[in-house]
Predict the structure of Transcription initiation factor TFIID subunit 5.
Amino acid sequence: DRQTLVAVLQFLRRSNLRESEEILRREARLLGDDLGGNVATVATSSPGVAAVAAVPPGKGEVRGDCGVGPCSAGTLGGTASVSSISSPSSKITHSGDVIGGAVVVEDQPDVSAVLSAYNQQGDPTLYEEYYSGLKHFIECSLDCHRAELSQLFYPLFVHMYLELVYNQHESEAKSFFERFHGDQECYYQDDLRVLSSLTKKEHMKGNETMLDFRTSKFVLRISRDSYQLLKRHLQEKQNNQIWNIVQEHLYIDIFDGMPRSKQQIDAMVGSLAGEAKREANKAKVFFGLLKEPEFDVPLDDEDEEGENEEGKPKKKKPKKDNVGSKSKKQDPNAPPQNRIPLPELKDSDKLDKVMNMKEAARRVRLGPECLPSICFYTFLNAYQGLTAVDITDDSSMIVGGFADSTVRVWSVTPKKLRSVKTAADLSLIDKESDDVLERIMDEKTASELKILYGHSGPVYGTSFSPDRNYLLSCSEDGTVRLWSLQTFTCLVGYKGHNYPVWDTQFSPYGYYFVSGGHDRVARLWATDHYQPLRIFAGHLADVTCTRFHPNSNYIATGSADRTIRLWDVLNGNCVRIFTGHKGPIHSLAFSPNGRFLATGATDGRVLLWDIGHGLMVGELKGHTDTIYALRFSRDGEILASGSMDNTVRLWDAVKAFEDLETDDFTTATGHINLPENSQDLLLGTYMTKSTPVVHLHFTRRNLLLAAGAYSSQ
C-alpha cells in the first residue's frame, strides 16, 4: 500500500534514520521526489497495523522479519513492517501504532499498544484448521526437516490462542487450547498452565508472562532448506494468518548447512523467548585471568623447620622469596589490567595472599583417583528457615541468612568472633605496639555466633568480602545491607530494587558487588556509592542468581526466564545469552581459569558452557531436583554440585572440557554434539540423611565443605 509506505518513509526521515529510509526506498523502488506531498494522516487500505521499529543510530542494518536480507515492505496482509536488530542490550526500541490514522510512536511497550498487534484477525472458526493443516504438513515432511519445523508448534500455538482470546472468541479459544495443548513439548508445561488461566481479554492486561511473550520475538534457529520448505507451503496454501504471526512475532535465525537433529534442538530450546540469536554470542569476551600483583614474601624460617619432622635440613627453594611472581606472562585472553578500576592491595591483603600461597602448596591434587573429603555443616533446629549460606574464602566463618530476617555469623575455627572496643577504650591503646590489631578487640564480646538484625523480610543471599571485613545480605524487603565484621553492625542499606532481592555477591577483588531480584534486573554497586553503577536489563523474568567472573570484568546472571546472561561490567552490555535449561536457574559457577561456566536449575541438569565460543559443551544428568549449589575445586579438576535431592555429586571437570569441538561451523550454527551419557563423568554421589544442599565451598587445600538445613519430613 503506497500511502502507508510514504508515511513510513516520512517517519524515518523525521527521526533522522536515513540509512533505514534508503534501504526501504530501494526495496520499494521509490525515488526521492515521491515524498513531495506532506501526508498528515495515513489511510491504511487494510485493517493492518503499520509497526515501525526504529534503529538506534549506528546499530546494525535493517533486516526484515524473515531474518534474511531486507523483506519487501508491504508484505502479506497489507502491513508495512520495518523491523530492526539492535544490540542485544537495547531492549524493544519503538513500537509504532496507527491510531486513528496517525502514526504514534511509543518508547515503552505500553500494554494496549502491545496487545493491539492482535487486531488483525482471521476467521476465528478456521484457526483450528490452519493449525492442524500446518501440523499435518510438518508431520509429513522429511525427518531431517521435521525436528526443526516442529519448533514452530509452541510459539504459533500461544500466539493463535492469545489472538482468539484478545478478539473475544472465548469458546473457539477454549476448544483450540484443548485440542492442541497436548502436542506441546513437556518443558513448556508450566507456561501452558499460566496460559490456560487466560480466558478473557481482561486477563491479558495485567499478565507479565503474556506481555513478555508479546513484546519479545520468539527466536527459532532453522536451516535455510527447512525455512524455504515452510515458506513455500504457507504461500501455496494462502495461509496468511500463520504467515502473519511468523512475520510479526517470530524471529527466524536462518543458517546454511545441515538441519539440526532432535537431540541438538532439545538441548538448546526451552527458554521463555526461544533460543538466543547467534548474533547475541558473537562479541569478544576477555575470559582470561588478570596477572597477580608481585610482592616480596618474607621467609619464615621457623615455619620451614617446624614442618620437617624427620629433622633433615630443609632445602630452600630458590623461588620462595618472590612467590608473588607466579604468573609472569600475561594471559592472551585476559582483559587489560586497567580495563575497570580495581581496588589497590592493602598490606593485610598481601599477607592473606601469602597465607593463600602457603596453603596452596599443601593443596591436594584432586582427580578421578583422588576425590576430596567432604565436611557437611548441618543447621539443626533451623526452624527460622535457612534461606542462604556463604563461607569465607579462608573457611574461617560461615553465615546463614534466615526466613525470620536475621543474619547469623558463626566462627568455624576455635578463634571466637570479637567486636572492636568502644571509642573510649580505644583511646587508651598504645597505637605503636606490634599487637595493636589484637589489642583493639574486646575479649568480653567473644562468642562463636553473632546475630545481625536489620532486615524486615527473609534473607535470600549472603556474601563475605574477600578481606573478611564485610558481609553483604539481601532480602525480600528490597534492600541489600553491608555489615561490618569488626563491629557486627550494619553500615549501609542499599535501596534500588523495589521488590525482593534474590541474590548478591562480592567481586573477587572486593569493593564492587552485584545484586539481582524480582524486578528482572541485576545491579552493579560499589560499597561507597548509594546508587548502582550499572543496571543490567534484559531478562524476561526474575534474576535468581548472580556471579562475578574471576577477573571481575564480567557478571553472570541466571533467571527464571530459563536463560543465563553474561554482562560486561565496563559498558553494561549483554555479551552472552545461554539457553538450554528447562526451568529457573538457581546456581552458577565459573571455572578457576575463567574459560567455562557451569549452571544448575530446577530441571536437575548441570549445563557447561564455553564462554569464549558462546557454546554449550556439556550436560551433566543425575540430580532429581533443583541444583542450588555448584563449585569448582581450586584447580578446576572437579565440579561439585549440591541439590534439593539431598545429594552432593562430584563430576570430572577435566574430562568434561577436553576434546571440545569448537570449530567455526559448530560455533556458527550451534550443532553441538553432547555425549549421550554423562555417567562416565560422575565420580561420586554422597547422600545426606535428610538435608538439602544449599551451599558448597572448596577450602584452600581442596577439602569440600557443604551446608544445608536438616528437614524432618
User: Anything to note?
Assistant: Confidence is low (pLDDT under 50) at residues 36-109, 301-327.
